[in-house]
Specification:
Layout (H helix, E strand, L loop, with lengths): L13 E6 L2 E6 L6 H11 L4 E5 L2 E4 H17 L7 E6 L3 H13 L2 E6 L4 H11 L3 E5 L17 E6 L2 E2 L1 H4 L17 E7 L7 E6 H15 L7 E4 L6 H13 L3 E4 L5 H10 L4 E4 L1 H10 L12 E4 L6 H10 L4 E6 L9 E3 L13 E2 L4 E5 L12 E6 L11 H8 L4 E9 L5 E5 L4 E4 L2 E4 H8 L5 E11 L3 E10 L6 H9 L10 E5 L13 H10 L7
Parallel strand pairs: 3-13, 5-6, 5-7, 7-8, 12-13, 12-14, 14-15, 15-16, 26-27
Antiparallel strand pairs: 1-2, 3-4, 8-9, 10-11, 16-17, 17-18, 19-20, 20-21, 21-22, 23-24, 25-26
Helix pairs in contact: 1-3, 2-3, 6-7, 8-9, 9-10
C-alpha cells in the first residue's frame, strides 16, 4: 500500500532492498559503517568542535585521538571485533569518547544508564556476555563481583581528571584505518524493559543507525558544520545516542554536554554555546519556562526543539511558541526497537495537529492492525506496527520473543493508535502497564515483581499517578499481611534494587485483596481511578 508520509515531500534516493529477510525501502546513499562515517567527518572538520563538557572542549581530531587511545588499550588486553563492551556512565565527554572507541574498533557497545542499580547492570552484562566495562568512577564501587560476572575480564574506570591511566597513556596514538565492517553487523546492544519485567537487548546495527541518522537530518533539515545540540537527556537512551550524538557526528555538529539537567543551567548553555538543536522530554521544556531564565537570556540560535517520550500539553506548546517564537517545535515518536524515530511532526503542524505524533519517516512503514494482525483501513483504531530499515532485527538471544514480536518483518509496538487519511499517526494509549515519568519508561511488572519479594507483601499493583510537571509518577497499591511494612520501608526495599525513577513515590497500603475480574486478573482501571481520586484537585 502506498501510504502518505515524509516521502511525499522528499522521495529522492529511495530504493528497495532486502535485509534481515525483510523487503525494505532504503536510502540509496547512506553510511555503510558509522565508525567510518565519523572518521570521514573528522577528516573534513578536524578543528571543529565535537564535544563541549564544561571547560573541556574537544575538536573532532582530539576526540578521535582520545578514542584511539582507548582502542589501543582495549586491544592490548585482548578485546577483539564483535566483543561486547559495557559503558556505565552519566553524560560526560569521556563516555562519548568510549562510544567512539567502540565504533572505531567495531566492538559492540552496551550503554548502561547511570541510574541503574547493581542487580540491573549485573543482568545486562551477563546477558550480553560483555568482556569489558568502561565505568564512571562514582559507579565503580557498585560493579558486580567476578563471581557474578564470569565473562567480564576488564574494568576501565573514568575519572573527573580524565580517562583511566590505561587509556590516557595511549592518547597520542596514530589513528588506525577506518572500520570497514558489514552494515548489518551489530553496533550496540541497548536494553529496554518489557511487560515481563526482564530487560531485552535490542540488536542495533550500522544499517539501522544510518537510516535513523538520515531521518533526523532530512526531517529536521540539519545543516553541515553548523549544528550544536544540548545533550541533556542520558546518552545511554536511544534519543541521546542516536538523535543527538550520532546525528551530530553525521553533520559535523557539536555536542554540548549537560551532566545533570538543571533548568537554569540548561538555558545558560543554550545561550552561551549558541545551541541550535535539542531533543528533550516535555517536562524539561516546562521546567526551563518556569525557571525564569528565558526572560534574561534570548536564544536567537535555538532553532529546533524536538521532544518525545511523553505528550506535550497544549498549554505548554502555546507557551513555548509565545516565549520562543523562532523555535521549530517537533514531536518525534519512536523507541529503542525502531532506533528512533518512526514519525516526526513538522513544526508547522505543532498546533494544528497537536494530537498527532506526525508522519511516518521517509523509509518507515506504519500500519494499524487488529488483534489477529490484519491491517485496518485509515481512521481505524488498533495496534501500531512499524516496519522499515531502522527497525532492529530483533532481541539478543530471544528467538521465541522475536518470532512473536518481529515475525512478519514489522515490530509490534503494543501502542494503540490510528492513522488518518493524510497519513498522520495518533497514539491513543501506550502499552497498558507502562508508566512514563518525564520520559523515563517504567514497566509496572518489574516493580510489582520486586514488591512481592518483601516478606510482608501479599500482592502489589503499580499504576501511573498523573503529575502536571513530570507527566506521570509511580504509585503502588500493596496488600500487606500485617501492620508492617510502612511505605518508607517499602521505598527503601525497592530503591536498593532498581533505578530511582522506577521507585514508587506514593503507596496505598491495605489489608484487603486487590480488585480482580472474572479471569482473576487485577483490574488496574479501577486502581488508576482511585489513584486519581486521591490527588487533591488543586494539584491535578
Amino acid at each position: 500500500m502506498n501510504r502518505p508520509g515524509w516521502r511525499t515531500n522528499d522521495s529522492g534516493g529511495l530504493i528497495t532492498e532486502t535485509h534481515f529477510g525483510r523487503t525494505l525501502t532504503c536510502f540509496a546513499e547512506r553510511p555503510r559503517n558509522i565508525g567510518a562515517m565519523l572518521c570521514a567527518t573528522a577528516a573534513r572538520h578536524s578543528d571543529g568542535d565535537a564535544v563541549i563538557d564544561g571547560r573541556r572542549r574537544l575538536s573532532y581530531a582530539e576526540l578521535l585521538r582520545r578514542a584511539e587511545g582507548m582502542v589501543v588499550a582495549m586491544h592490548r588486553v585482548g578485546l577483539a571485533r564483535g566483543d561486547r563492551v559495557g559503558i556505565w556512565s552519566g553524560n560526560r565527554w569521556e563516555a562519548i569518547a568510549a562510544v567512539v572507541a567502540c565504533l572505531r574498533a567495531e566492538f559492540v557497545a552496551v550503554p548502561l544508564g547511570h541510574r541503574l542499580q547493581t542487580d540491573e547492570v549485573d543482568y545486562m552484562l551477563n546477558d550480553s556476555g560483555a568482556k569489558a566495562l568502561i565505568v564512571d568512577d562514582v559507579l565503580a564501587a557498585r560493579v558486580p563481583g567476578k563471581r557474578r560476572l564470569p565473562d567480564l575480564r576488564h574494568v576501565f574506570p573514568l575519572t573527573d581528571k580524565g580517562v583511566h591511566k590505561t587509556f590516557a597513556a595511549d592518547a597520542a596514538s596514530e589513528p588506525g584505518p577506518p572500520p570497514v565492517g558489514n552494515e548489518e553487523t551489530l553496533a550496540f546492544l541497548m536494553y529496554t524493559s518489557g511487560t515481563t519485567g526482564r530487560p531485552k537487548g535490542a540488536m542495533i546495527t550500522h544499517f539501522n543507525l544510518a537510516h535513523s541518522v538520515l531521518h533526523y537530518i532530512r526531517g529536521m533539515r540539519l545543516s553541515d558544520k553548523l549544528e550544536r545540540t544540548l545533550l541533556a537527556v542520558p546518552f545511554t537512551h536511544i534519543t541521546g545516542l542516536v538523535a543527538q550524538i550520532l546525528t551530530m557526528f553525521a553533520c559535523a555538529g557539536a555536542i554540548v554536554v549537560q551532566r545533570e539537567f538543571k533548568a537554569d543551567a540548561a538555558v545558560r548553555l543554550l545561550r552561551d554555546e549558541r545551541v541550535t538543536h535539542a531533543v528533550m522530554v516535555p517536562a524539561m521544556y516546562n521546567l526551563m519556562l518556569r525557571s525564569g531564565g528565558l526572560e534574561a537570556a534570548p536564544l536567537p540560535c535555538f532553532r529546533i526543539g524536538a521532544y518525545g517520550g511523553a505528550p506535550m500539553p497544549p498549554a505548554l506548546t502555546e507557551e513555548i511558541h509565545r516565549r520562543l517564537p523562532g523555535l521549530e517545535l517537533m514531536n518525534a515518536y519512536g523507541s529503542t526497537e525502531t532506533t528512533s524515530p518512526a514519525t516526526l511532526l513538522p513544526a508547522a503542524d505543532a498546533v494544528r495537529r497537536r494530537d498527532s505524533v506526525g508522519l511516518p519517516m521517509h523509509c518507515a512503514e506504519i500500519f494499524v492492525c487488529d488483534e489477529e494482525g490484519r491491517e485496518l483501513p485509515p481512521g481505524s483504531v488498533g495496534e501500531l506496527r512499524i516496519g522499515g530499515p531502522m527497525v532492529v532485527p530483533g532481541y539478543w538471544n530471544l528467538p521465541e520473543v522475536n518470532r512473536d514480536t518481529f515475525g512478519d518483518g514489522s515490530w509490534r509496538s503494543g501502542d494503540i493508535g490510528r492513522i488518518d487519511a493524510d497519513g498522520y499517526v495518533e497514539v491513543l494509549d501506550r502499552s497498558k502497564d507502562m508508566i512514563n515519568r518525564a520520559g523515563y519508561k517504567v514497566y509496572s511488572a518489574e516493580v510489582e515483581g520486586l514488591l512481592v519479594q518483601h516478606p510482608e507483601v501479599a500482592e502489589a499493583a503499580v499504576v501511573a499517578r498523573p503529575c502536571p510537571v513530570l507527566g506521570e509518577r509511580v504509585h503502588a497499591f500493596v496488600t500487606v499481611t500485617s501492620d508492617q511494612p510502612t511505605a518508607r520501608e517499602l521505598t527503601h526495599f525497592v530503591a536498593a534494587r532498581i533505578a530511582d525513577y522506577k521507585v514508587p513515590e506514593t503507596f496505598t497500603l491495605q489489608a484487603e485483596p486487590l480488585p480482580r475480574n472474572a479471569n482473576g486478573k487485577i483490574v488496574k482501571s479501577s486502581l488508576r481511578a482511585r489513584a486519581l481520586a486521591e490527588i487533591p484537585e488543586s494539584v491535578r
